[in-house]
């Protein structure tokens, strides 16, 4: 009962709150399970505390947290600290300190970082989790053992996500802002659905979807993003990238130019060298199709060509769903008089490489335009371009850096039909539109987006898609020529918000932030201008949970406290003897015997 005796003597002297005395008595009841060193440390602390109390609330909080720490030891509860491994730190960061959480909470935490359960990088982990859920009766709770068993192979990826090391660190907030832009743009009711191809005219003008995928594989979708639609002209940058990747820039541009045409995309027009102006107009795309066909198809049958078309886009990303819309393909052929005219004109001018039949090249071009994707899969295609040719959700290089650079350059200057100049001026990002209502938007080194809404403006671009791009760049500094250093009116989602201040988190009782900082391997002993640590601030603010977290998880404070208490031991003992001697000499002898 040594602690209780010290507290009772000192509390009478200092007028201490009786709740502290009861806590110490409660601790004394558990004292047999404390080792000798722990008891000595606690006794030293009791001396120091009650001779420096003077009814200071911060000291009271400090003392109460220390008592809780010793009670934690006395009841043989395992402490969780860095020695338990980074997996445990990650687990408790996700569960916010709880030992068990439902699977739904774990999935929700993943989504906040931008990771999806459908991410191919998480496939093995998610398969294990689904297997356990199928074999279990009732709700499955994730504990540390299950967490390690299921996600042990993805620790590096999850550490990156929960340390907020992805390109968009505050992804949940960013997604909310994208949703607001989406809702604002949804009210646009201008434009008409393309009807010169019968299959396109069947789409409802109310359809509207936006998906994005960052270079780290963070994904978000809002609206009609699972509705399949055909790529149409959005396939042009993809086929050009494949051609450059496999044939090289010099070989490709022997047959097609790289200048904006200044005329409509489907005009019978060639440059001064009798080459199509660029790969983003119909003439250039038909020639690019012939180049790919020469290398890969080699006069295959029509059925084999269908398969080849699928493989071409599968080369960009093997996990996306791409299908040939056969009805649309037939519709394209039946209404493709202008493209046939362009083909015959280029045949006369000898624009095609040797060994290519013009009709076969046109068929191949129609098939590529008839490829179906969704906004979700299209955003991964765009993100592959944004990521320098490496698919962000497989980490597989599928296009060369040279091919991607050339493609983005041409998209920036020629990708939006007769709106290309205005798009470059106001939005400042590479993009490609299609008459199906799709816009493939690339923010280099950040993300790719696919917007889709069938109503088109007079030049053939999606009305809602154009407005979305403009609103996006007006809110975020994504324009290629935005001043990232001095222009503060726009937001930069690539930067972390100001919640990475350790003292600020300790002052506001933000335990989740402290758990995240522990994942960052942040120095928890850093001091502010007044030489206060987070431990001091947590004690002063009365945030018991934060104090306990820092005290239990990090050893630096314990050694310092032991040293300080040892230094004060002799002085405190002398002061106690003098005070008790003046009041009651008999009490002094009692205390001496106990010490």
List the helices and strands and how they pair.
Elements: H1 2-14, H2 18-29, H3 36-50, H4 57-74, H5 86-95, E1 101-102, H6 103-113, H7 123-135, E2 141-142, H8 144-151, H9 155-162, H10 171-186, E3 192-193, E4 209-214, E5 219-223, E6 229-230, H11 236-247, H12 249-252, H13 282-297, H14 302-316, E7 323-324, H15 326-334, H16 337-348, H17 358-369, E8 371-373, H18 375-386, E9 390-391, E10 396-397, H19 401-414, H20 420-426, E11 431-433, E12 438-443, E13 447-452, E14 455-456, H21 463-475, H22 502-508, H23 511-519, H24 534-541, H25 544-553, H26 556-583, H27 585-594
Antiparallel strand pairs: 1-2, 3-14, 4-5, 4-13, 6-8, 7-8, 9-10, 11-12, 12-13
Helix pairs in contact: 1-2, 1-3, 2-4, 3-4, 3-26, 4-24, 4-25, 5-9, 5-23, 10-21, 11-13, 11-19, 13-17, 15-17, 22-24, 24-25, 26-27
Explain the overall architecture:
The protein is an alpha+beta fold. Helices cover 54% and strands 8% of the residues. The chain contains 27 helices and 14 strands. The strands form 5 sheets. A 5-stranded antiparallel β-sheet has the order 5-4-13-12-11. The chain has a 3-stranded antiparallel β-sheet with strand order 6-8-7. Strands 1-2 form a two-stranded antiparallel ribbon. A hairpin with a 4-residue loop joins strand 9 and strand 10. Helix 1 runs antiparallel to helix 2, helix 11 packs antiparallel against helix 19 and helix 24 runs antiparallel to helix 25. The protein is elongated and about 120 Å long. Its EC number is 3.5.1.2. Keywords: ANK repeat, Hydrolase, Repeat. Pfam families: EF-hand_14, Glutaminase. One of its GO terms (molecular function) is glutaminase activity.
């Amino acid at each position: 009962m040594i602690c209780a005796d010290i507290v009772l003597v000192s509390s009478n002297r200092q007028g201490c709150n009786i709740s502290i005395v009861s806590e110490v008595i409660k601790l004394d009841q558990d004292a047999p399970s404390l080792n000798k060193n722990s008891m000595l440390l606690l006794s030293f602390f009791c001396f120091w505390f009650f001779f420096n109390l003077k009814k200071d609330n911060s000291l009271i909080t400090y003392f109460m947290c220390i008592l809780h720490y010793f009670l934690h030891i006395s009841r043989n509860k395992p402490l969780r600290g860095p020695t338990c491994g980074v997996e445990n730190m990650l687990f408790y960061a996700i569960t916010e300190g709880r030992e068990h959480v439902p699977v739904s909470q774990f999935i929700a935490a993943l989504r906040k970082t931008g990771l999806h359960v459908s991410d191919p990088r998480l496939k093995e982990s998610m398969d294990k989790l689904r297997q356990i859920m199928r074999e279990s009766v009732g709700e499955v709770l994730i504990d540390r053992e299950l967490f390690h068993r299921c996600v042990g192979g993805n620790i590096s990826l999850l550490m990156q996500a929960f340390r907020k090391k992805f390109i968009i660190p505050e992804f949940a907030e960013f997604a909310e802002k994208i949703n607001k832009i989406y809702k604002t743009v949804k009210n646009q009711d201008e434009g008409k659905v393309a009807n010169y191809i019968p299959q396109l005219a069947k789409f409802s003008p109310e359809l509207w979807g936006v998906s994005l995928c960052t270079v780290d594989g963070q994904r978000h979708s809002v609206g009609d993003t699972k509705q399949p639609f055909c790529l149409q002209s959005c396939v042009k940058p993809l086929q050009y990238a494949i051609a450059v990747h496999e044939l090289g820039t010099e070989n490709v541009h022997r047959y097609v130019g790289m200048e904006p045409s200044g005329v409509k995309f489907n005009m019978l027009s060639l440059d001064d060298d009798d080459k199509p102006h660029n790969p983003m107009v119909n003439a250039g795309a038909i020639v690019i199709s012939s180049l790919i066909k020469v290398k890969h198809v080699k006069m295959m049958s029509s059925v084999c060509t269908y398969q080849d078309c699928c493989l071409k886009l599968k080369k960009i990303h093997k996990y996306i769903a791409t299908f040939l819309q056969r009805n649309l393909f037939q519709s394209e052929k039946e209404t493709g008089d202008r493209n046939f005219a362009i083909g015959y004109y280029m045949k006369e001018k000898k624009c095609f490489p040797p060994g290519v039949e013009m009709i076969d090249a046109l068929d191949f071009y129609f098939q590529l335009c008839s490829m179906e994707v969704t906004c979700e899969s299209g955003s991964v295609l765009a993100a592959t371009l944004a990521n320098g040719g490496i698919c962000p959700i497989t980490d597989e290089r599928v296009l060369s850096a040279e091919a991607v650079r050339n493609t983005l350059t041409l998209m920036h200057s020629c990708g939006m039909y007769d709106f290309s100049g205005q798009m470059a001026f106001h939005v400042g990002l590479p993009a490609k539109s299609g008459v199906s209502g799709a816009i493939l938007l690339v923010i280099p080194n950040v993300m790719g987006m696919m917007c889709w809404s069938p109503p088109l403006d007079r030049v053939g671009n999606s009305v809602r898609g154009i407005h979305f791009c403009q609103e996006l760049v007006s809110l975020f500094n994504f324009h290629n020529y935005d001043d990232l250093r001095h222009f503060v009116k726009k937001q930069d989602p690539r930067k972390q918000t100001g919640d990475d201040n350790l003292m600020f988190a300790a002052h506001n009782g933000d335990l989740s932030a402290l758990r995240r900082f522990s994942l960052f391997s942040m120095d928890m002993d850093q001091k502010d201008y007044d030489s206060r640590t987070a431990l001091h601030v947590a004690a002063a603010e009365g945030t018991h949970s934060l104090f306990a977290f820092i005290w239990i998880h990090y050893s630096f404070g314990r050694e310092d406290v032991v040293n300080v208490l040892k230094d004060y031991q002799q002085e405190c003992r002398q002061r106690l003897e003098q005070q008790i001697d003046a009041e009651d000499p008999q009490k002094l002898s009692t205390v001496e015997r106990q010490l």
